[in-house]
Design a protein that fits this description.
Structural class: mainly alpha
Number of helices: 6
Number of strands: 0
Radius of gyration: 14 Å
Low-confidence stretches: none
Largest sheet: none
Order of helices and strands: HHHHHH
Oligomer: single chain
Helix content: 55-70%
């Protein structure tokens, strides 16, 4: 009997965004706009967490930023209130930036 391994939704998203990096930027941009509009910080942090996983995961990001992996994971969880400096380091490492219009 040949069992087929099913992917989780997160695994499918990661695979999709690896193939379509422009869509990942749009996803993060929309999440930031939602945060600015109605304070939905969870959606923005979730988008950054997804981008981190697409770009190699929390261990890779921790090495690149010099931040602790566990603290980074907590900072990008939906239950956190991260410092702006942490968010900026994550964005910079992902090749993204905040823009004021």
């Amino acid at each position: 009997m040949n069992k087929k391994k099913l992917r989780t939704f997160d695994e499918a998203q990661i695979e999709h965004y690896k193939k379509h990096p422009k869509e990942l930027k749009v996803y993060i941009g929309v999440a930031l706009e939602e945060y600015q509009k109605d304070g939905n910080e969870k959606a923005f942090l979730s988008a950054l967490s997804m981008a981190t996983r697409v770009h190699g995961g929390f261990s890779k990001l921790a090495k690149a930023t010099g931040l602790n992996r566990e603290n980074l994971y907590r900072a990008l969880s939906e239950r956190s209130d991260p410092r702006l400096s942490t968010i900026m380091q994550v964005l910079n490492n992902l090749g993204l930036s905040l823009t004021v219009r």
